[in-house]
Amino acid sequence: MKSRSNRRSATIAGNLMLAPMVAAMRLPTMLSEDRSTNPWGTETLRAINEKNAAMAEGMVAAQMSLMQSASSFWFDVFSGRTPSLFSGVAADRAVQAALKPASQRVKANYRRLSSKG
Predict the structure, then answer these.
(1) Signal sequence span per UniProt (predicted)?
(2) Can you give the pLDDT at residue 106?
């Protein structure tokens, strides 16, 4: 179980490390859009919308993860296990759930932008 969590964390971290590269790949397109008559070009709107959607999805996923951990609290107590809310497992799951949407979008954008050029 711990190794699966570590792999998930490593995957998310690896994907998020692509964020500076994605920003650098997007800048020329966004700059050319800024110089046109319509400053809200396709790539600019896509960047804004993707960030907002990833943030909202991440918040909901983190809340759902914490709710799931809270709902199993008494089951863990009565079965003699340390509740995940106390052991830190719930926080780890919530952070992973919160970062997963952003991680997936960064990876998808990297693939899309690297195939363009």
Answers:
(1) 1-24
(2) 95
What is the spatial distance between Cα 96 and Cα 85, in angstroms, rounded to a whole number? 15
Report whether 50 contacts 109 (CB < 8 A): yes
**Residue 85, amino acid:** L
Q: Give every CB contact of residue 47 below 8 A, 6+ residues apart in sequence.
A: 26, 30
Query: Comparing C-alpha atoms, which of 111, 116, 97 is closest to residue 28?
Result: 116
33 vs 73, more confident: 73
Report field, pTM of the whole predicted structure over 0.85: no
Q: Reply yes or no on whether the pLDDT at 39 is more than 80.
A: no
Sign of CA dihedral 12, 14, 15, 17: positive
Q: Can you tell me the distance from the alpha carbon of 90 to that of 5, in angstroms, rounded to the nearest whole number?
A: 12
How confident is the model over 63-91, as a mean pLDDT? 93
